[in-house]
Write a structure and sequence with these properties.
The chain is mainly beta and 345 residues long. The chain has 5 helices and 19 strands. The radius of gyration is 21 Å and the shape is globular.
């Protein structure tokens, strides 16, 4: 995408899309639903480099001014470096963190908007050959709190246990990843969930362990490179993934909740990324050989929730999705609330 770069002497600073800077209308930070565009200069910078970020926030297509953007670098629960600022009249904020104290560590970058947990990614300071290794961009849409709790003070760090001030519960270690094949969302979800524990299992390793079967309760059904949405080239259900996880030192706890969110929120409260099966088109189910398959089935990883809905890491896009509870329970209920929480054995 097109980026606007902020000049800094001797430093590379990421720019972010700012469409038509002369736009007459500018929204204020009183909207609960926003679109954001995020760029980081690096996730694997060489020693001595900063990580520079640019953040654009829009509402209804208009720049959203006055949103407090916070970026923090964590190792475990320790906050290593942080920065915060309000978005300007173009809806843009430029921030920078110093990762030098975390060189050689497996770190995590968190971003919040108005104290609402928003986005995160793994970082590996000190391992790159240049200041720009592992540059990253992402976009995300969803609800945020209507106003910041402070005036851009970087000391207003979010709680590192994933509970943020707007009442959301988030597992901050869960990241984002794009599935490698048309119908490999289940195996990609396993990678996302296990990577949150620091030991991601590749799609191909899970595939080799699961095997194939016409019955998705026993193995992968169909051609993994087929077209999405049908019931012939299809996918796999929770039980074979659970058996595969056990071979790699994880527990995959299978549950069928029939759309009741109690079990899911309990697992997220416990910090367990939870793979969920969703009927994206509603109830398009048929029965074949005594088992049920659903056209439009897709799999994501639930990593947070609030009073309004559920936060999901979607391997189809490599980004985050947010569904209100009603929509989520409708799609999830189509699949009998099929779920798989993941944690180390």
């Amino acid at each position: 995408m097109t980026v606007l770069r902020k000049a800094m002497a001797g430093a590379f600073v990421l720019g972010l899309l700012v469409a038509q800077l002369g736009l007459a209308s500018t929204a204020r930070a009183d909207s609960s639903s926003v679109d954001s565009y995020i760029e980081l200069s690096a996730t694997k910078p060489a020693s001595g480099c900063t990580i520079d970020g640019s953040f654009e926030v829009r509402s209804g297509g208009y720049p959203l001014a006055g949103v407090e953007v916070f970026i923090g670098l964590y190792v475990g629960t320790d906050l290593i470096s942080s920065d915060a600022a309000l978005t300007d009249d173009n809806g843009v904020s430029y921030l920078s963190i110093d990762p030098s104290a975390a060189d050689g560590a497996d770190a995590w970058i968190d971003v919040t908007l108005n104290d609402t947990y928003w986005w995160g990614t793994a970082a590996y300071p000190g391992v790159g050959g240049t200041c720009y290794d592992g540059a990253l961009n992402s976009n995300k849409s969803g609800p945020i709190a209507g106003a910041p709790s402070s005036s851009g003070d970087a000391s207003s760090a979010p709680s590192s246990n994933g509970h943020v001030s707007n009442g959301a519960v988030i597992i901050p270690e869960v990241g984002f990843y794009v599935q490698q094949r048309n119908l490999s969302c289940e195996y990609a979800a396993v990678y996302i969930a296990t990577a949150a524990w620091g030991n991601g299992i590749s799609e191909y390793a899970t595939e080799a362990t699961v095997g194939w079967s016409d019955n998705p309760h026993e193995g992968y059904r169909g051609n993994i490179n087929g077209w999405w949405g049908n019931t012939y080239d299809y996918g796999v259900y929770a039980e074979p993934l659970s058996w595969a996880l056990a071979q790699y030192g994880f527990v995959g706890e299978v549950a069928y909740t029939y759309g009741d969110p109690t079990w899911l929120t309990r697992e997220i409260d416990a910090g367990n990324p939870t793979i969920v099966w969703l009927g994206m088109w509603g109830d398009q189910s048929v029965y074949e050989g005594g088992y049920r398959v659903v056209a439009g089935m897709h799999v994501m990883v639930a990593y947070g929730y609030d009073d309004g809905g559920v936060y999901l890491s979607d391997p189809a896009t490599g980004g985050s999705r947010y569904y209100d509870w009603g929509t989520f329970e409708w799609m999830w209920g189509v699949m009998d609330g099929m779920s798989l929480s993941v944690y180390p054995a």
